[in-house]
Amino acid sequence: MSIFRTALRVAAAHPVYLTVYVVFLSLLGVLVIGDLGTGAAAAASGPAFEARVAVVDRDGSELSGALVSWAKKNAEVVTVDDEPLALQDSVATGAVDCLVVLPAGFEEGLIADARAGRDPAPLEVAYGTDVQAGALAATATSRWVSLAAQAAALEPDATASEVAEFALAVADERVDMSVDSTGTEDATGSGLAVYLRFSTYSVMSSIVVVAGVTLAAYQRPEIRRRNAAAPVAPARLASGELGACCVLVVCVWAWTCLVGVVACGGSLTGVDPLLVGLALLSMLPFALVPLAIAFLLAQLGLSEQALNAVGNIGAMVLSFLGGAWVPLALLPAGVQAAARLSPSFWASSAVEAALGANGVTPALLAEVSTSVGIVALFAVAICAAGLAVGRARRRVAGAA
């Protein structure tokens, strides 16, 4: 128990890390979903607003012109000069929610691809500060392009003007780019799903740094020599260290869930509590992944500064692959394939499956269990690598 308590004291001796990584980043997730916990009733009087879109037409064709005309009817179109600094500034300052660039040859390439049976080339899109509004506008624009491609494929003899007319007629019936401020839901689920996807970053970074610093403290040469001379079995020493870190993991997970439920309370009205609980529980195995990473990094002997760097950069990359920053559907196929090799993707999949279901069914439990099981395998594999590294280092130290 003394090892366990000492490890907890080591973790508690870093209040700045606990405050910044655990508390601050969780509250930052609340800002991401745009819900400060006031509930849906407080926001019910908020009016809907249109996404601000800038369309840079470098093609000057009938099809690109039709897309611009359609955007003007369905969104607040912002005029931006077609030069690098102006385009970057419009996105960075939030002047536009979505910047769409139609390259030269847009019309010719789209029609040729459609009639050759190929998918249209993805649009060049950038988001402003309101990622949800930008993603919605980008999705609607991509749908318009898909409609134009379908028209070109179905009518091989149709002119570009006729293709544009068809796309305009159908898109006006199916697409609405307005954003309702009374809700925080996106295409993949409720506000809680958005929050939990972002939490893959906060959970990953906080546990890697805090648990890593705690475990690394026991890897210092003088501490290792003293522990080796003490009448304590290595297994008992390791169990005490990891036990304290598991308490940290549960506390971070519980805090993250509490903040998410309180912040999204309004949007969860009418959602089956069992589904909410299933989504929250799906995040607990994911929290074991950063613990395994922290264990591996500690066995490698990384310094405190290196732990901070790896924790932040690694968490940023993994959360991106989990769809925390940009919907994966808008990313290239190669990135989507790579995302399946990350635990954050499967954790997000489990959350979205739970919150997107109508009720708890055997099929849902099987789907969530599969995703959670894959996440657990990531944790086991990384932990095994850490054990192998630790054993190798002890052999080298013993030989020396």
Task: Report the radius of gyration as a whole number of Å.
Answer: 25 Å
Which band does the percent of strand residues land in? Answer: 5-15%
Overall helicity:
55-70%
Average of per-residue pLDDT values: 78
Q: In which order are the strands of the major sheet placed?
A: 3-2-4-5
Largest sheet: 4 strands, mixed
Query: How many alpha or pi helices?
Result: 16
Q: Low-confidence spans: pLDDT under 50, at least 5 residues?
A: 35-49, 174-189
Number of domains as seen in the coordinates = 2
Shape: elongated
Describe the secondary-structure layout.
Blueprint: H1 2-12, H2 15-33, H3 39-43, E1 49-50, E2 52-57, H4 62-74, E3 76-77, H5 84-92, E4 98-102, H6 106-115, E5 124-127, H7 131-154, H8 160-174, E6 178-179, H9 191-217, H10 221-229, H11 234-263, H12 273-299, H13 304-321, H14 333-339, H15 343-355, H16 362-399
Parallel strand pairs: 2-3, 2-4
Antiparallel strand pairs: 1-6, 4-5
